[in-house]
Write a structure and sequence with these properties.
45% helix; 16% strand; elongated; 3-stranded mixed beta sheet; CBS-domain
Length: 163
């Protein structure tokens, strides 16, 4: 599709900061019913992406076994202090510790066909749209489907005249 990203992207994107806790970010994601959020600094610069999959991996049994083993090795059979254990509680993990970086990005003028290729090649569900490193939108698979439904003639035109 030669339609540019800015014609299909979501502009009102929920973002989180790198210092937010994973619990705070997950709460925002659940409230807005989104499966991933871009991580941005105070100036809006894209730093990473945090998805439900990133959260799930961290709270999975395999990760928890490795965490328990590490703490056992650290304590050398001694009881760890309550202050130390409180400081590493899972709900105190920060977004920056779980986010994926670098993020696959596009510009507002990137054709949707290229964005589709990026999604398929990198096995991702969304592409961040940036201008000079700052997040300006997000193109998700749902955005692409909406665009097909809203403008089927554009899609048909692309299929007939791909250049």
């Amino acid at each position: 599709m030669s339609i540019p990203a800015h014609m299909a992207m979501t502009r009102d994107v929920l973002t989180v900061g790198p210092e937010e806790t994973v619990s705070e970010a997950a709460g925002k994601m659940a409230e807005r019913r989104v499966s991933a959020v871009p991580v941005v600094d105070d100036g809006g610069k894209l730093l990473g992406m945090l998805s439900e999959g990133d959260l799930m991996r961290h709270y999975g049994a395999d990760h928890q076994r490795r965490r328990a083993w590490f703490l056992d090795q650290l304590s050398e059979g001694q009881k760890l202090s309550r202050d130390f254990l409180d400081s590493i509680r899972l709900d105190m993990v920060h977004v920056k510790d779980l986010m994926v970086s670098p993020v696959i990005t596009a510009t507002p003028d990137t054709p949707l066909s290229i964005i589709v290729d990026l999604m398929l090649t990198h096995k991702i569900k969304r592409v961040a749209v940036v201008t000079d490193g700052a997040l300006v939108g997000l193109v998700s698979r749902a955005d692409l489907v909406r665009r097909i439904v809203q403008a089927p003639d554009d899609v048909l035109d692309y299929m007939v005249n791909p250049n």
